[in-house]
Task: structure prediction
Amino acid sequence: MNKKHFNIVFVADDAYAPYTAVTLQSLFNFHPQWQFDIWLLSCNFSLENKLKYENYCLKNNSRFHLLLVDAYELTPYDGIGFWSKYTFLKLLIADKLPLTIDYVLYLDGDVLITNNLEELFQTPIHNYALAAVEDLSFVKAKNIEQFGMDTSAISINSGVMLINLEKWRQASCLDLFVKFVNKWRNKFSLCDQDVINNVFANKIKSLSLKYNLTHFCFGLHVKKFLTISHLAQWRNARQNPAIIHFTNNTKPWIWETTHYYKSQYLKVAAQTPYFQDFISIKKRT
Result:
């Protein structure tokens, strides 16, 4: 069978290298016939981790590319509330990836892939800046209240995004990210996510909830936030998830936490080059 190909991008540092590797392993597990170009933006990624990732990807028929970013490039995003400027790194994705790449899937380093993503890779977004899963909690209301966002626009969680790099490059050339930050510097609540939701308002395609199932979707009170259409989607996503997102305080590598997919996460972790980093967790859970 001919191997298929797609570009995947992460933002991580040395501290997040083991966890991002678990996300990668889950990607490889469900796509044995695929070849990936794995891109990682970082201001702090050691040579040891770079070599480990290169060998790891090579063993899985993929290629690893480290894109080091100088911290000064994030100066426009410094001093925004309690957020570190490094949380805005994903806004530089389009500037750093080669111009020959048109589309890329961005993944946070705290997600676990639980199904094949071919349908997601093939999602048409030519007329959109990105495709992502709507945040069904309070995010849209905050964007409307804080930034005056169009009420017809959707608000998304930026942990999983299928990105149209041409649209992002255009926004970057027009300085739209920095202009938004400068205008609303004192009103941020969700850092890069606020920028993406508002700069690309009405240019975001909604994805099925199964592609970014956050801890909110496992909460006791989730149903009160859902419309009738979202309720059906939520039920289907719970039964057939494609990407689990361990948001907030549900990180599965913290031994005290509980999550329905924690044991599955730790099984995948044991397949990575960072297995030793998870042994103490496995012994205590």
Q: What stands out?
A: The radius of gyration is 18 Å.
